[in-house]
Design a protein that fits this description.
Length: 230
């Protein structure tokens, strides 16, 4: 009995010490990242880390997402600083499973959203510089591991319609042009590779498909993700 307990303890320690195969799920707002993660809930040995949007909507009673969309020039910096912290916490969170699926990353925060806000002028160049220094420090000093990026590629007009339909109150003011620019930034980062830094190979899925067809598309990624779980 003692041996058995020791054995299972060692097994758990091994799992805890070895690094999980880490998958980052990326794509435009409304591209179905949460639905993609939910697809993998049926499998064992996978840790699913959905994006902490609820934390962004309630930090000690403050809705930072709403503040950011209501007055971007005032709140974009605060919002992105908190996003970086919550994403870093997810990157560093220990898991006891061999596979970890994460919605978004500090990379899309930096290369897509912070970049977009700099271009729109909602981040002052000085604020951008501070976030840039944080990103560089994290990237060099704190290990952020990724083994695969699943890019849920969409057409901006399609996700725009989805965003309108799901009617998240904070996002009602988001114009199509914002979604189009974010799309280009995802494409530049993950397809055109305009940044030297893409942390893992990219698997592209067609995420324009509606809910009745999307499961088949998601299944295309199962072998790459699940073989690490056995
Ligand atoms: N957001 C942001 N800056 C970030 C990350 C997200 O401004 N670094 C905003 C954009 C959205 C909201 O937060 O208004 C959530 O965006 P996501 O695309 O990350 O999540 P969704 O809920 O849209 O994902 P999906 O619909 O694909 O499941």
């Amino acid at each position: 009995c003692f041996d058995f307990k020791l054995c299972s303890l060692r097994l758990k320690m091994n799992c805890a010490n070895s690094r999980p195969f880490t998958v980052l799920v990326e794509g435009n707002i409304g591209s179905g990242k949460t639905t993609f993660l939910e697809h993998f809930r049926q499998f064992e040995d996978i840790t699913l880390l959905t994006e902490p949007v609820e934390e962004w909507r309630n930090l000690k009673g403050w809705n930072l997402l709403d503040l950011m969309y209501s007055d971007p020039a005032k709140w974009a910096m605060t919002f992105q600083a908190y996003v970086s912290l919550t994403m870093l916490e997810m990157h560093r969170r220990p898991t006891s499973t061999p596979v970890k699926l994460m919605e978004r990353s500090i990379f899309s925060a930096k290369y897509c959203f912070v970049e977009q806000m700099k271009r729109l002028g909602t981040l002052h160049p000085a604020q951008f510089a501070v976030l840039d220094e944080w990103f560089k420090f994290i990237n060099t000093e704190i290990p952020v591991e990724a083994d695969l990026i699943v890019y849920l590629k969409t057409t901006p007009s399609i996700v725009y319609d989805r965003i309108k339909k799901r009617a998240r109150s904070e996002e009602q003011c988001v114009p199509l042009s914002y979604i189009e620019e974010l799309h280009k930034l995802h494409e530049d980062w993950l397809i055109n590779r305009t940044h030297a830094d893409c942390p893992a190979p990219v698997l592209v899925l067609d995420a324009d498909l509606d809910l009745s067809q999307i499961t088949e598309e998601y299944k295309k990624s199962e072998h790459q993700i699940l073989r690490k779980a056995v």
